[in-house]
Description:
Layout: E1 2-7, E2 13-20, H1 22-25, E3 30-35, E4 48-49, E5 55-62, E6 66-77, E7 83-88, E8 95-98, E9 105-110, H2 115-129
Antiparallel strand pairs: 1-2, 2-5, 3-6, 4-5, 6-7, 6-9, 8-9
Amino acid sequence: MSLKKTFSADGKKCTVVFNVNVNAAAGAxxxxxxxxxxxxxxxxxxxxxxxxxxxxxxxxxETNKEYQFRYLLEDFTDCGGNNSRLWINDWKADxxxxxxxxxxxxxxxxxxxxxxxxTVSKKTQKSKKN
Length: 130
């Protein structure tokens, strides 16, 4: 799993690609991105199932913030042969915070604009003015 971030030229938006790899997907038929950015709605951000069984989705977020999130996997057969739901974290999240509602951690994505991006943006804007 991984978080791929791309920042807008003005530094106001961060597009994040969220991924659940095939191993973590555990044969699920559906996956959802659930977090602070959608008020923890369990079905408002469905993830696309890729041919290899992984899932991904792209989400645009405001920069210079941290957002807690988790993935909800549905419609897979667990060890007991039951059709189940499973909450998982991103193995490569920026950090983890203890959940206030469950006895577990939440993944965190940090959209702070890197210093080198800020420097490049300022140089680019000066070049365009000349």
